[in-house]
Amino acid sequence: MSQSKLTYRAVHAVGPGKLELADKPLLDPQLGYVRIRVEACGICHTDAATVEGVFPIQWPRVPGHEAVGKIDKLGAGVQGWSVGQRVGIGFLGGSCGYCERCRGGDLVNCRNREYTGVQQDGGYAEVMLIKASGLMSIPDDMSSVDAAPLLCAGLTTFSALRNSSAKAGDLVAVLGIGGLGHLGVQYARHMGFEVVAIGRGADKAELAKKLGAHHYIDSTAPGLAAALQALGGATLVIVTASGGTAIKETVKGLRPRGRVIMLGATAEPINV
Ligand SMILES: [Zn+2]
Ligand SMILES: [Zn+2]
Predict the structure, then answer these.
(1) Which end of the chain has fewer CB within 10 Å, C or N?
(2) 138 and 162: one domain?
(3) pLDDT average, residue stretch 141-169
(4) Whole-angstrom distance, CA of residue 30 vs CA of residue 256
(5) Distance 116 CA to ligand 1 centre (A)
(6) Which domain holds residue 95?
């Protein structure tokens, strides 16, 4: 896209289930915002909630909350960021800094937060306007394509592991080896845990081992809880997939004081 062009291309949702390619006017970033040229954007399952209108969407809306790009313009009042810097933005589109939750250090629950791709246009576009308080800097040695999925799927699994009470050497299970789980297994291995991958069927075993899992358990075979107990019982289970029965089994596979962290709960009931 040439710099003189005053529009940029974006894919926006115009109604439930309907995405269209559009030319949008190139606007300057407002106070506290930056404008980026998007280099990569991951596709998250939550984007479907924007596209299908499950979120309170004002059409049209550009989905995408795993975006990486270079800053090409700073709005007034933006400090600590520079033009040309490569940055990323996730689902949390930045905090206000003045509400009582922000002042208490709980930026994630900012009362004035706006979600990327929900209240603010997201990264299915050549250009994005982003609140500077939501930016993350991207290391030079990581490609934009590799960094993008870490901004939601990666952050979700990494935060769960990092904020858990499990310590290196503990048995940690990752239930579901999909978009979140395949990252969770890699993080868990690199954080020094003894890693159990739990997937549906035997065909995910090879991938799970390649990603760093020490053990693999097929959740469709009987004896999931017993298999975890045979390994000593899990200190932590990260649930990244739906499936009430498998979740119930992992609870029975915990060691005393073990914990289950649910990432992405569904409407399906879990009987424990
Ligand atoms: Zn997401
Ligand atoms: Zn706030």
Answers:
(1) C
(2) no
(3) 96
(4) 52
(5) 10
(6) 7-144
Q: How far is the CA of 100 from the centre of ligand 2 (A)?
A: 7
Give residue 228's pLDDT band: very low, low, confident or very high (50, 70, 90): very high
For ligand 1, the distance from its centroid to the CA atom of residue 239, given in whole angstroms, is 16
Measure 255 CA to ligand 1 centroid, in angstroms.
Answer: 31
- How many angstroms is it from 43 CA to the middle of ligand 1? 8
CA nearest neighbour of 163 among 104, 225, 108 = 108
Residues whose beta carbons lie less than 5 angstroms from ion ligand 1:
44, 46, 152
Q: What are phi and psi of 48, to 5 degrees?
A: -65, -30
Tell me the CA–centroid distance for residue 151 and ligand 1, in Å.
8
Residue 269 has pLDDT above 90, yes or no: no
Give 63: exposed, middle or buried? Use CB within 10 Å, 0-12, 13-18, 19+. Answer: buried
* 105 φ, ψ (degrees, to nearest 5): 90, 5
Tell me, yes or no, whether 165 and 231 share the same domain: yes
Give the integer Cα–Cα distance in Å for 118 and 64: 9
Ligand nearest to the CA of 103: 2
Looking at the fold, whether 16 and 81 belong to one and the same domain comes out as yes
Report which bound ligand comes closest to the CA of 112.
2
Write phi, then psi, for 85 (nearest 5 degrees): -70, 140
Closest CA to 263 of 229, 237, 230, 240: 240
- Is the confidence at residue 232, as pLDDT, over 80? yes
Write the pLDDT tens digit of every residue in 253-267: 999 999 999 997 777
E strand or H helix at 226 = helix 224-230
| For residue 240, pLDDT beyond 90 | yes
Looking at the CA of 106, which ligand is closest? 2
Contact 78, 135 (CB under 8 A): no
Mean model confidence pLDDT for the chain: 94
